[in-house]
Design a protein that fits this description.
302 residues; alpha/beta; Rossmann fold; seven-stranded mixed β-sheet; 18% strand
């Protein structure tokens, strides 16, 4: 990207970056008390299979499912792109014996992730920094794996995310994502796009891409063996849990919002939690797992 275009991108994206930071700063209490578990600080949905019995297990299972598909193994170096408060990074270090660098736009998440890593005894294996995953400071070929757990949705320039992931991977390295993917553009019904964007705006997400768009961007960036798996059935119990919690707590949250005791970001979080379920029930999006392999020779793209 030319220097002038980079400058323009910074001007355009700054308000969104501020919304993302405000969202995660102001909704931390919601996540901490209603979603996370002492075993895993996972700001993502759970993966339910025949052996899953609890919400806490499902959060760990999502990490396990992606790690298995990627073939993550001891001694590798992993970039956790959009690492949240370190849930996946700490899990990868403890369970897979890898070195992990986690990056996020949110300074408070870096601080929490560092404390979590210290509490779990993996300070020597993980590091966290405040960076944009579409233009990092790491040298080419720095990582064996780029991991993105429900995080690439936050960038408006998803193609640049894929290109940066390819730059950072060694030849033969692996990209693994769990991501929300829309079923089409445009969506089929006249009110479908409104419902989808009600959820997305509440969670500081500018838009989500289709499976076809992700596949095309990956192939253009010289990824091979691009596989996209629909895991919505495995995630649906987690989505349903969130919706039921939202119905229980939303009346009180609305009262606190009207009284000025909950912020717009916090209220948007509740709206998003309600509408993500409505949108998946209408078949407007799917939860997907994307894996791909960095080809031996990358093709430059602009």
């Amino acid at each position: 990207m030319a220097a002038g275009n980079r400058t323009q991108a910074h001007r355009v994206e700054r308000p969104l970056a501020e919304r993302i930071r405000a969202y995660y700063d102001e909704t931390w209490g919601d996540y901490r008390w209603l979603w996370l578990s002492p075993r895993n600080y996972a700001i993502h949905f759970g993966y339910w299979d025949a052996r899953t019995r609890t919400h806490a297990e499902s959060l760990l299972n999502m990490n396990q499912a992606l790690a298995e598909r990627l073939g993550v193994r001891s001694g590798q170096r992993v970039l956790d792109a959009g690492c949240g408060v370190g849930g996946s990074a700490v899990w990868l270090a403890r369970r897979r014996g890898v070195e992990v660098v986690g990056i996020t736009l949110v300074a408070s998440q870096v601080a929490r992730a560092q404390r979590y890593a210290k509490a779990r005894g993996v300070v020597g294996q993980v590091a966290f920094a405040q960076q944009d995953y579409t233009r990092t400071t790491f040298p080419d070929g720095s990582f064996d794996v780029v991991w993105a757990m429900e995080s690439a949705c936050h960038t408006p320039d998803k193609r640049s995310f894929v290109q940066e992931a390819r730059r950072l991977l060694k030849p033969g390295g692996r990209l693994g994502m769990v991501e929300y993917m829309r079923v089409g553009r445009p969506l089929p019904g006249p009110t479908d796009e409104y419902l989808l964007r009600s959820w997305l705006s509440g969670w500081a997400i500018p838009d989500i891409a289709t499976e076809e768009e992700w596949r095309r961007w990956a192939e253009e960036a010289s990824f091979a063996d691009v596989r996209i798996e629909d895991i919505t059935p495995q995630v649906r119990p987690s989505l349903r849990r969130l919706y039921r919690m939202t119905r229980l707590f939303s009346p009180g949250a609305a009262l606190l919002h009207r009284a000025g005791l909950r912020s717009e970001a916090q209220q948007g979080n509740v709206r998003g939690a309600r509408d993500i379920w409505r949108a998946v029930e209408r078949g407007l999006w799917r939860e997907c797992m994307l894996t791909a392999t960095a080809a031996a020779t990358a093709t430059a793209t602009t």
